[in-house]
Every structure is written in structure tokens, then in C-alpha cells.
Amino acid sequence: MRTHRHVLAALALAAATTVTACSGHSPSGTSVPPTPAGHSWSVQSLTVDGRTLPAPAAAQLAIGDRQPYEATGNYGCNGFTAGVTFESDSAMTVKPGSTTAMACEDMAFETAFAGLFQGRLTIEAQPGRVTLSTAEGDSITMTTEPRTPDAPLTATTWIVNSLVSGGTAASLPVDAQGRARFTIAADGSASGSLGCNRFSAKATVDGTRLTFGPLVTTRMACEGAPGEVERALTELFGSNPLTWKIQGGTLTLTGPGPGPDAKGIVAEAASAAE
User: Fold this and answer.
1) For site-directed labelling of 109, which of 132, 180, 214, 248 has its Cα 20 to 30 A away?
2) Where are the alpha helices (DSSP H) in 193-244?
3) DSSP label at 27?
4) What is the pTM (predicted TM-score) of this model?
5) Do domains 39-143 and 156-272 have the same CATH topology?
6) CB-based contacts of 100, cutoff 8 Å, min separation 6
7) What ranges do the domains of the chain cover?
8) DSSP string of 142-199?
9) How far apart are CA 168 and CA 67, in angstroms?
10) What architecture does CATH give domain 156-272?
11) Cα–Cα distance between 135 and 132 in angstroms, integer?
């Protein structure tokens, strides 16, 4: 026959198990993937209409750990607040609150972030990482990890992954991916591949401006997508001066044309050049 002490012990164990389950931890102490509440997040990127927009270093989001849940954050320049309601561990609804109204350098990202962080969002959570998605498939990717420091413009191998036209970035065709790459050495000498032919040139950096001298290239005939990428890069590198911008490991080079018609590229850092 069970004693009164045994019954109390069983009730205490059941209560402890219930508290452990509700706190988001398993009895063994392993962490369950977190929801966004109760954390501060660094925004890594947005995905809008199939395009990936790298986040400025200041883009962040924090959500309180108790009801009524309130979000505070930064679109990259402007600050904001919002009310958050959790339907479950996998869905939330965001009601925008206040925001500052400064004119900022990357207003395209700010506008996209503000447009995504509202309404009903589904939550895909992994330890230290959360993706918030709209019904249309656009998303906000966030992490608790520190932001990657900006790669240096020089002494870095840059791999071209997108061509930009009028502010819209299009990924390279599959058979051209990974082929166009370049490095600017500390002495200003630039070299690499245009996607088919190799090239070398003299590069001059003046603040956020980058100027390439005449390109010296090999003379192979280049067909298909690699040839198209090569022609686009040759035209861009000859349209000085270019404007460069680095966020984390992403480099954007933009030509001098009018804003809506400007050409450019997006490249990712591969490794430090030796």
C-alpha cells in the first residue's frame, strides 16, 4: 500500500515534469528550438520575390518574454515597435506600432523589412536561428549569433553570384555560377576570371568609389551563359567610377548610371587571398 509520502513524491514529480515541458526544455535538459519570444535577434537577410537582401549590421529584432508581447527593433537605420500575438509555437501575428522616419542609405531594405514584419507569419525555429515567413513565401531570417564582420575589399576573393539591373538582382545561370571571381590586392592590382577569360587590371579605391583601369584579358571564345556574364562584367568594370558597399561577406558594386537604370553585381567573399 502506497504511503502518504509516496503520493506526495509522485505529485511533486508530475508537477516538475509539467513545469519542465512548459518552460521549453526537455527533462534531460536539452534545449527545444526556441520561438522568437524572449530573445534578441540579429537579422541576417530578407527573401522577397525570390531575391535575397543582405541585412545591414544594425538590423535587429527583440521580442519580450511575457504577454502582452512587444517587439522592438531596427530596420537598419530607423527604429520600430510592434505588438505580437503568438497563435502557437509555429505562428504569430504582428501589429506594427511606432517607427522613426529618418532618410537612410538603404531605404529599399528598410521598406522591405517593414513590409514583411506585419500580419500573420509562420515560424520555423532551430537552435539559435529563426525564419519568419509570409503566406506568399517571403521571409525574414534571424540568428542569435554575432554578425559576421565586414570582409575587407582588398585581399579577399570575391565570387560573383548575381547581376544587378535597375536595383533588381538576378542570380547567375547555373552553368555560370562560381566561375566569375576577382581579387584586389593591397597594392591595387586586380585579377581574376570574368566567367570565361582571365583578366588583370589596376584598381584605385577612393572612399566608396572603385575605378578599374583597362582590362588585360585572355582571348578565349566564350559562349552561352558564361559569355553573357563575361560581357556584363567587362562592361561594368569599364564604366568607372563604381560604387562599392560591403555588408558582412557580401559586396555590391554599382555602376555610375542613373539610379533606376544602374548596372551592378553582387559577390560573396570566398576566402582571404594569399
Assistant:
1) 180
2) 224-237
3) T
4) 0.53
5) yes
6) 78, 79, 80
7) 39-143, 156-272
8) EESSPPPPPPPSTTEEEEEEEEEETTEEEEPPGGGTTTEEEEE-TTSEEEEEESSSEE
9) 40
10) Beta Barrel (2.40)
11) 10
Which residues are CB-contacts of 5 (< 8 A; sequence separation ≥ 6)?
none
C-alpha cell at 92: 504569430
Strand 209-212, strand 242-247: pairing: antiparallel
Question: For domain 39-143, is the CATH number 2.40.128.270?
Answer: yes
Q: What is the pLDDT tens value at each position of the chain, 274 positions in all?
A: 444 333 223 323 333 333 333 333 333 333 333 478 888 899 999 999 988 898 888 899 999 888 899 999 999 888 899 999 998 889 999 999 999 887 777 888 999 999 999 999 999 988 889 999 999 999 999 998 766 678 899 999 999 999 988 778 888 999 999 999 999 998 999 999 999 999 999 999 998 899 999 999 999 999 999 999 999 999 999 998 999 988 778 899 999 876 667 899 999 998 633 3
SS3 state of residue 138 = coil
- Distances from the Cα of 82 to the Cαs of 13, 39, 46, 64, 256, in angstroms? 39, 15, 18, 11, 38
* Amino acid in position 237: F
Tell me which residue has cell 554575432: 146
Q: Provide the 10 A C-beta neighbour count for residue 242.
A: 22
Cell 560591403 -> residue: 246
Side chain identity at 153, as an amino acid letter? L
Whether 121 and 133 have beta carbons less than 8 Å apart is answered as yes
Q: What are phi and psi of 228, to 5 degrees?
A: -65, -40
In whole angstroms, give the CA distance from residue 12 to residue 1.
Answer: 19
